[in-house]
């Protein structure tokens, strides 16, 4: 039985807590072997939304398989907020040193920083807190505007709903994408958002299936979105025949691997164009040889977006 221990800080955001808690509660319902615990320095913990929570006031002994997760709290700034004792910070530090995993949502990254767990590691937090986190922990490498970052069993995520993405990623790492997809369906959310994505609507629309082979192919395409990927190479990398790749992928996603890659490229290009990049530059940045193909795809049904055409 793996324990997921939530460290409750006064003023915590309910969704920072309830999102990951629901993921692991659903995982337990599926028989994946999780026990949820809620601990804090005080038995009564007020939330930012006014709901009073109850916590175990004694910190448990942990084993390396256990996860400690720190939800964020209402924090226009980090300095002077989320105060915890040195004993609690040492408990976090010792758990990681013994081989355990620690994670945070939003401002919870500051707790990991105070425990010394961000030094020399990549991390992230809510976009409104990134500058302050960087100033407070100059030996950390703050990755901006991503959903979550994993570095040597220290897992940090952005604000609020990204805690769900973090938890689903950890479930995927331990149990595979099929388990994560089943949990996401139970929660009525899409199965996966990759940590490095800002907003991945194409990925989300086509990740709600449970075919692990197709998930692997999608991982390849997403990682190498700008490369020329032949069907033969996808087949080799995924360990399937070309015919099987096409059949499984189309059945699971409703599109061919090439169309999926094009949709990802167009979506990324739309984002770049919406932030001031020219169509020509955006086309080259996402892997098109020139802007003609991008313009053609942007005009087709199924590739359209709300971004004004240029």
UniProtKB/TrEMBL annotation:
GO molecular function annotation: DNA-binding transcription factor activity; sequence-specific DNA binding
SMART domains, A to Z: HTH_ARAC (SM00342)
Pfam families according to UniProt: DJ-1_PfpI, HTH_18
Domain of life: Bacteria
Domain HTH araC/xylS-type: from-to ranges: 215-310
Keywords: Transcription, Transcription regulation
InterPro entries in UniProt: Class_I_gatase-like (IPR029062), DJ-1/PfpI (IPR002818), Homeodomain-like_sf (IPR009057), HTH_AraC (IPR018060), INH-QAR (IPR052158)
PROSITE patterns per the UniProt record, alphabetical: HTH_ARAC_FAMILY_2 (PS01124)
Protein name: AraC family transcriptional regulator
Organism per entry: Kibdelosporangium phytohabitans
């Amino acid at each position: 039985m793996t324990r997921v221990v939530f460290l409750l800080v006064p003023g915590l955001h309910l969704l920072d807590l309830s999102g990951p808690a629901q993921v692991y509660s659903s995982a337990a319902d599926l028989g994946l072997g999780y026990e949820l615990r809620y601990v804090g320095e005080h038995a009564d913990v007020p939330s930012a939304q006014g709901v009073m929570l109850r916590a175990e006031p004694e910190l448990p002994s942990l084993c390396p398989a256990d996860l400690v997760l720190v939800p964020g709290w209402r924090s226009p700034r980090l300095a002077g907020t989320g105060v915890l004792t040195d004993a609690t910070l040492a408990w976090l530090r010792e758990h990681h040193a013994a081989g355990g995993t620690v994670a945070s949502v939003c401002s919870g990254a500051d707790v990991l920083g105070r425990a010394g767990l961000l030094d020399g590691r990549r991390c992230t937090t809510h976009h409104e807190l990134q500058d302050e986190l960087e100033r407070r922990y100059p030996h950390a490498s703050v990755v901006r505007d991503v959903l979550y970052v994993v570095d040597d069993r220290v897992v940090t995520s952005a604000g609020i709903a990204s805690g769900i993405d973090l938890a689903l990623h950890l479930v995927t790492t331990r149990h595979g994408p099929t388990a994560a997809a089943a949990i996401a369906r139970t929660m009525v959310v899409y199965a996966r958002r990759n940590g490095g994505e800002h907003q991945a609507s194409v990925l989300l629309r086509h990740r709600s299936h449970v075919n692990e082979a197709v998930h692997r192919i999608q991982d390849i395409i997403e990682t190498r979105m700008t490369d020329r990927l032949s069907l033969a190479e996808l087949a080799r990398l995924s360990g399937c025949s070309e015919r099987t790749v096409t059949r499984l992928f189309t059945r699971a996603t409703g599109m061919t691997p090439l169309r999926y890659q094009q949709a990802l490229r167009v979506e990324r290009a739309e984002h770049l164009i919406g932030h001031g990049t020219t169509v020509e530059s955006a086309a080259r940045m996402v892997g098109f040889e020139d802007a003609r193909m991008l313009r053609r795809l942007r005009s087709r049904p199924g590739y359209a977006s709300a971004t004004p055409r240029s």
